DNA sequence: TACGTGACTTTGG
DNA sequence: CCCAAAGCCACGT
């Protein structure tokens, strides 16, 4: 135990804790993991796309959604969860950004 | 061990 | 608004 969990694994655990209706950015997750520069690795982990991992809640700092051709699909999932969107078609991350102490702290 | 790759972020034009 | 380049770190081969 107490092994050094690869950033890869840490991301999964963190994303899995994001409550519905909230979203987080790659850089923010990386920052929580203690690697403010590992935003790319976070996205890389998402690339695995595990079905157990609601990576749709993980978007860019700008509020835009990544995932290539799946991006528009994830956007619909976020809308179904109650995530607010802007007229620009981007996530209103300013209103639904997951923060420590939010519903996830339950 | 080294190189290549990438679903990011930031700054500048 | 759009585009481009640089910096960054970890994983796979």
What is the topology, as strand order, of the major beta sheet?
1-2
Order of helices and strands: HEHHEHH
Unreliable residue runs: none
Largest sheet: 2 strands, parallel
For the secondary structure, the number of strands is: 2
Report the structural category.
Answer: mainly alpha
Q: Any idea what the CATH superfamily is called? A: Winged helix-like DNA-binding domain superfamily/Winged helix DNA-binding domain
Integer average pLDDT: 89
Q: CATH fold name, please? A: Arc Repressor Mutant, subunit A
Question: Helical region count?
Answer: 5
Query: How much of the sequence is in beta strands?
Result: under 5%
Instruction: Quickly count the domains.
Output: 1
Termini separation comes to 25 Å
Which range best describes the helical content: under 10%, 10-25%, 25-40%, 40-55%, 55-70% or over 70%? 25-40%
Gyration radius over CA: 13 Å
Label the CATH architecture: Orthogonal Bundle
CATH top level class name:
Mainly Alpha
Rough outline: globular
């Amino acid at each position: 135990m107490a092994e050094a969990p690869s950033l890869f694994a840490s991301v999964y655990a963190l994303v899995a804790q994001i409550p519905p209706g909230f979203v987080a950015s790659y850089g923010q997750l990386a920052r929580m993991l203690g690697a403010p520069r590992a935003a790319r690795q976070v996205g890389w982990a998402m690339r695995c796309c595990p079905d157990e991992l609601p990576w749709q809640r993980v978007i860019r700092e700008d509020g835009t959604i990544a995932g290539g051709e799946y991006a528009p699909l994830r956007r619909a999932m976020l809308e179904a969860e109650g995530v607010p969107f802007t007229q620009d078609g981007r996530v209103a991350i300013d209103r639904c950004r997951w923060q420590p102490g939010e519903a996830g702290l339950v």
